[in-house]
Design goal:
By secondary structure, this protein is an alpha/beta fold. The protein has 10 helices and 11 strands.
Length: 291
């Protein structure tokens, strides 16, 4: 099992003046500790599950570019970009730019979007759920076309592109991997089977096991090899300041591995203090690598 680090909040001591330095230290320490990837949320405002809406939130792709400059090995992505946040052609260019400038380390994490307050707050259209899923599928098609030899037009219901030119092309081969976030069984997992390289769920191991069985059926229906898709889980990592919870955490991660998860992407409690990252590298990452 691999572990990725998600950074869902930036409200740390020192405020904005020290935020850049702290973020760089977190990213470098995570890479040195053995985390395979670093992820940030793609939101305009802080989300209710994490904290108050007024708390600090950085723009995702600028933050990932900054993290890329402070690291050399970890993969980089959003957990996840809402399809409504950016025009798909521009999103493909952003991920391509991250991939090229990081030396081929970018992921595209994408979903249907859900946080209406940030859309209304900043004047971004927030269509119906049905339309958001239609736009999500078109965005996936546009991105795949831009990352191919086809630079011709794209004509969809919601998006029309006269030219899908993307120069330079990504360094990742055959292209940056695509992760679709969410566990919706009728729409989201069908899109995973059709387009994605990875899925992402949250919930307990029993929930993950069930979602993967649904995904397996969608793969059969789509003629897709289920084993080609990386199975990832979003989970809160609480190792303790000095590793007092390491044994329990390894057991929790083991239960996810038994359910079929290959990668856990975790928000690490106390990440801003760096020590929990180092403890993860000492007491958890080597152990779960054997799962």
């Amino acid at each position: 099992m691999k572990l990725g680090l998600q950074i869902p909040m930036f409200t740390w001591s020192g405020g904005a003046a020290e935020m850049g330095q702290r973020l760089g230290e977190i990213a470098r320490t995570a890479e040195d500790a053995g985390f395979s990837s670093v992820w940030v949320m793609d939101h305009y405002f802080q989300i209710p599950m994490v904290g108050a809406v007024e708390m600090d939130m950085l723009e995702a792709y600028t933050a990932l570019g900054y993290i890329a400059g402070h690291t050399s090995r970890v993969r980089l992505g959003t957990m996840v970009t809402g399809v409504t946040y950016r025009h798909p052609g521009i999103l493909a260019k952003q991920v391509t730019t991250l991939d090229v400038l990081s030396g081929g380390r970018a992921w595209l994490g994408i979903g249907a979007a859900w946080f209406d307050r940030e859309h209304h707050g900043l004047g971004v259209p927030f269509p119906s759920l049905r339309e958001r899923f239609e736009r999500l599928e078109e965005a996936l098609q546009i991105t795949l076309q831009m990352w191919s030899d086809n630079d011709g037009p794209y004509e969809g219901k919601h998006y029309q592109l006269a030219e899908t030119i993307s120069s330079p092309q990504p360094l990742s081969k055959p292209r940056p991997p695509i992760l679709i976030g969410g566990g919706g069984e009728r729409k989201t997992l069908k899109l995973v089977a059709r387009y994605a390289d990875a899925c992402n769920f949250f919930g307990d191991p029993a929930t993950v096991r069930h979602k993967l069985e649904v995904l397996r059926q969608h793969c059969q229906d789509e003629g897709r090899n289920y084993d080609e898709i990386e199975k990832t889980v979003l989970f809160v990592l609480n190792v303790g300041r000095e590793g007092e919870n390491a044994g329990q955490l390894v057991e929790q991660l083991g239960a996810f591995a038994e359910a079929g998860a290959q990668t856990v992407i975790g928000a690490l409690i106390g990440v801003e203090h760096l020590r929990p990252i180092e403890v993860m590298g000492r007491d958890v990452i080597p152990q779960v690598a054997e799962l």
